[in-house]
Each structure stands twice: as C-alpha cells, then as structure tokens.
Amino acid sequence: MKYIIKENKNLLEKVNKMNLEELLNCIICPNIVATQEDVTKALSCFIHPNTYANIKRKIESINSLNNHKMLFVTDMEAGAGSAIDGATRFPSMRAACEAGDEKLAYLMGKSAACEARKVGFHWTFGPCVDILGNHFSPITSIRSASENKNDVLKYTTAYMRGLQDFGLIATLKHFPGDGYTMFDHHLTTSFNPLTRKEWDDSYGYIYKQLINDGAKVIMAAHIALPAYDTVDHNGMYPPASLSYNLLTNLLKKDLGFEGIIISDATEMSGFCGYMNYYEACCTFLNAGGDCLLFAHSTEEFINKMKEYIASGKLTMEVIKNRAYRMLCFLEEYFEQVDKLPKNSDENFQIYADKMVDLSCKIYRDRNKLLPIKLDKQLKIAHVVIANQYDFSLAEKFTKKLSLIATVDELKDPGCKKLKEIAKSKEYDYIICSIGCFPWYGTNQITLSGVVARNMMNGWMKYDTKVIFVDFGHPYIHEEYDAMIDTLIYTYGYANNTIDKVLSLIFKK
C-alpha cells in the first residue's frame, strides 16, 4: 500500500511555535563524528558501523541527554551485519538475486530489522535499487541486485518488505538511478545517461512499483538526469538533490511519491562541489527535499539559513513544511512500531548460510579442473591480488586452506615471483584471491596501480594450475578474460563463504 504522511494538527501547532534553530534541527540528520558529539537536538542521527556494544552504548547515551524522540539510522543494504559487528552477516544484495530465492531476500530484511531494533536503530539507508548497467560502476557492483530491472524490483521489494514489516524504515537509493557510468558522486556530480523512454522503462518502472508498494523514504542522489532536466546558468545539469524538476516534478508529481526525501551525504562533492555548501542545502529544500544528511546545526549553518531567508532565497514556509513533515513521519513511526512483530530470537544465521550456499558458485572452469580430489597431501600457494581488500579475509582463507593442505600465503607478490613459482612446479596449485571491494571516494573498481602489475608475465598459463576466487567485485574476468580459466564467484562475504568456496574446490 502506498505510504502517505498523516496530517497531525498538534504537530502543526508545535511547528508554528518553533524558532529557526528548532525547525532546522527537525530537517537535518547529523552523523556522530569526533569533532561533534552534540546531536541531541536533532530528530534523527546517523550512526556509523561499529560493534553491537558500542552502538548500543552510543544510542543510550544520546537518548539520556535529549528530551524528545529521535530516529537512529545507519546503512544496512544487505542485513544488519554490514553495520553491526556481531549481527548476522549476509553477503550482498547481488547474492540475494544470484541465490534465486525471493523469500531469502525478505528474510534478510527481517533479520536486519529485528537485530537493528534490538540495538536501538529505527531506520536504514537501503535497499540499493540501482541497475548495474555498467559492470565497472564504482558505486553499484554487488550493492545492486542485477543488470535486469525485473530482478532489481523483485529482490529489493522483498528486502524492503522484510525491513518494514518488522519495524525498520527502508530507504530507496540512489534516485534517479546509478549504475550506468564510471563516475563516483562522492567525488563529482554524476549523471544518468538514459533517454526518457529508457529511464521510464527501467528506473521509473522500479521506483513507481516500490512507491505503490509502501516505500517511505527515497534518497536523492547527487546524480543528474539530463533527459528530465534543463541546464543551469553554467550550462550544467544539476544533480537530483538540487533539482526541482527531478524531486518535485518527476518524483513527487509524476511518480506520486508522498513520503520523505532525504539527501545523500551533503559532504559529497557531487552536492557541495556543484555549488557552495550552504547554498546547496538551501536549494535542496526548495527543490522538494525534506532532510539533509550529515548536516549539523552549527552557528554558521543557522546564520547562513538566516541570510537566505532575509534575501528571499529561502522562506520560513518551506522550512516549516519540511519540519512538519519530518515530525509527522517520526510521530507516526513511534505510534506504529511497537505494534509490529519482533521475533528477535530467531536464528537468522540459517538464512545467511543458505544464501551463501545458493549464490556462491563456479562461474568458469574451462579445463574441468574442479573439484580437486584430496587423495594426497597438496602444496598450495594462496596468492592475494586485490585493491581495497580486507586482508583479514585472506588470512582466514589461508588458515582454512591449511587444514587440508600445506599452504604459503603471498600478498601482492609481483608478476616476476608468480612466474617463477608457476614454472617451478613447487606448488600443486595456485589459488588466487582476486578483485576489488567498492569503497566510497576512491573511484576504483578494478585492479589498479602496482597491484595490477601482478597480472603481467602470463604466469597463469605455465605448468601450475591456477584457481581464481573473487570475494569482491564480481566482474574481474571481463578485464582478464583470456587469463582466467577457473573462477569462483562469491558475491560478497559472510560467515560460511570460505567453507562454501572450499567445498567447490575440493572433493574428499
């Protein structure tokens, strides 16, 4: 059922009595950073990933200092384990799609909601409803369910329902849609290159269906959509977060969205690199946005808003409207959340394990190498060639490999060393953990720099058989297609991923 913010006369009266600072605190969502712990005046607050104990302690501390209800939010695009160390870890939204089980996506949402609520969260920025139109987009990768719009809709709908059925507010992102370029809107204003018809048939279709299915929040990204917009005085297309055409005309009027529009992080250059930070905040509100992510009600921020009001660039009516909508949104949530089921004692690890089991697979085995029979003691070189890699994962893989074979671990050894060991037949097999994990603000999704040089010298074509395992970005084979004969895809990492990989490689 489509979500519509309920009117509340009492809250309207409350808003009309608020001063400017109080109103602005309704329409910001600050993050807790080292230099600013005082977020208690705001209606919402973003908490970065941390341990269960630390998050719980932080939320309890803030609640003890404020005198009003507050929404706590974090990023949970694929289960609570991505934000809470100690919660159930699912591999990714792409893994949910590759598993081919819509119910698992729903259960991933349910687990996230139950575990997040237990620690004190009410809201998450997810799911990511982008289409992976370009495999080398630095933003989407395994955060996107698929290259196919129907699969994106199917699995993100299931995840959203799982979240909201159990009391965690979902957020669709990144409107108007990422995944078709190689630009990173942390660094620059990105754009969606689709024509009107292409956008209507893909992203427009997805957003329309999800809105009708109960989406409560949509994140306005720092991504332009030229097909639906006009150039500014500099001849540039504004990002959605700064565009009246995209937020009000397209999202609200054409698609019929009546929920909350939150900006992507205001510190991203796609937003504050397009225009002055404070002017951008003002423009977002005028464009139809409700809540500024990572804005803080500092003295400078308040004074700048006063200046815009005095100059006519911003009106108190706009600020009051956004504050009123946020207050209604918060009040309605707390009225309903306790009526929803919790089921927080359910063993969600079973579902995460099943998702890994169904999604982790042999993508390619040209020479019919797998599975390898364990009929003798094997000697294996575990080679790690990766950018933005969690090397503790490599160490875990080496440790598990060592239980079934003699293993040497080589991190970024260089192509000369790899050629030597491949020609020497010193090892029975080389197992190579390869890839890149998307990481914001790096614009990096492929092997790069000196790390990429590991793929020189053709060492994978000598006498020692090589098995590649991709724990991160799953399209590495497209760059090194001829070189990689045997490849296992994991689509992310969860607790039993390594065990599953080993079961695909070896046969007792």
Describe the fold and architecture.
By secondary structure, the chain is an alpha/beta fold. It has 2 domains: 9-312 and 321-337, Alpha-Beta Barrel (TIM Barrel), CATH 3.20.20; 360-507, Rossmann fold. Helices cover 38% and strands 15% of the residues. The chain has 17 helices and 20 strands. Strands 13-19-18-17-15-16 form a 6-stranded mixed beta sheet. It has a 3-stranded parallel beta sheet with strand order 2-4-6, with no helix packed on it. Strand 17, helix 16 and strand 18 form a beta-alpha-beta unit. Helix 6 runs parallel beside helix 7 (196-212). The chain is elongated, with a radius of gyration of 24 Å. The N and C termini lie far apart (52 Å).
Short description, anyone?
The chain is of the alpha/beta class. The protein has helices at 9-16, 20-26, 52-65, 93-99, 102-119, 149-165, 196-212, 244-254, 269-272, 277-287, 299-311, 316-337, 349-359, 391-401, 415-424, 449-452, 497-505; strands at residues 28-29, 44-46, 50-51, 71-74, 84-85, 123-124, 171-175, 190-191, 217-220, 223-224, 260-263, 292-293, 361-365, 372-373, 379-387, 406-411, 429-436, 465-470, 486-489, 506-507. The protein is elongated, with a radius of gyration of 24 Å.
